[in-house]
Write the structure tokens for this entry.
Amino acid sequence: MTEWLQELAQSQEAPWLAAFALGLLTAISPCPLATNITATAYIAKGFQQKRMVIWSGVLYTLGRAFSYVLIAMVIYFGASKFHIARFLQGNGEKWLGPLLVLIGLVMLNVIPLNLKGSGFLQKLSERVGKGMTGAFLMGIVFALAFCPYSGVLYFGMLIPMTLAAPEAFSIPFIFALGTGIPVLLFTYLLAFSMEKVGVWFNAIQKVEKVVRYVAGGVFVLAGLYYILIFMKVL
Amino acid sequence: MKTIVFSFLAFFIFSNCTGQEPVKTVLQSSGPNRIEVLDFHNEHRCATCLTIEQLTKELLADNYADAQQKGLITFRLINADEKANGAIVDRYTAYGTTLIISSVKGGTEEFVDLTNFAFMNFNKEEKFKETLKKELDAALKRIRS
């Protein structure tokens, strides 16, 4: 499967197919895989509303597309690919690890988030907590975490393809679809199976609580994974 | 409707090139005629990056031990994140893991960036080594001619 995607990604005649294959290869490479699993856990926790799960998956993918297209535009209009790639690759794990652990601890109620009465922050946290806006923001942030492998796929292969193509910005957009589709599929499957489990055991509320804690745990684990990479333990 | 779908598919499949060929760059360089295999990496090394290094070293040891002993071919592992390597990183625009084969002859340097190839073929040992060998043989031919 990976070899087939690699061949497709190097396709000279079909840049859109190549971009999609590069996106899928990115989605299953170690660093983006960790962020995608985290996003899947975050989105699937709202399994009681299947429509919201689907829209959250779509918005997460659009968030990734936003970042990928924006970086491509900045480079297209003259910024140095070299400097942007160096900055993003050098700093990805540095801030993503602690951020994921922090969000995970908030989700697990280890760190209480009490923003009552703080106006804008309260509204923001409510919106983010609802899932859809949070999924979009998560897509934007997670797409910026480049590791060596995903960095080569994006900066080394996708950007030259984008610069050479007349339909330039559709290329990173299709790449983003490739990176997000596994999340869309898995969140839907997870949400569907958890709903069934909840109905069978007649305990939707309990399942919801467990799923929320599992999602928080996944955030903490993914964060620790990035911190360990940064500390050169992994 | 069918026409629209077929037009869309045709556009999808037959659009322009992707530009994945290794690019050969020519620069001015001093020193004796030589080949350098430059393997740049970030502070944090991924499993793929380590495989690329291992396969490259294996190929050099198995096929170019003599050329290495004579100083014709050298292998250099370079940390792209170290400030001391800033000049060489800029020279080869090595923003992360980057595999370069450079050949210097009579003050002119030609180098080939094999990074994309390496990342797409790290799991196909035979193809990886075969292509790298082809590039190294071409570089040897150039500096010996």
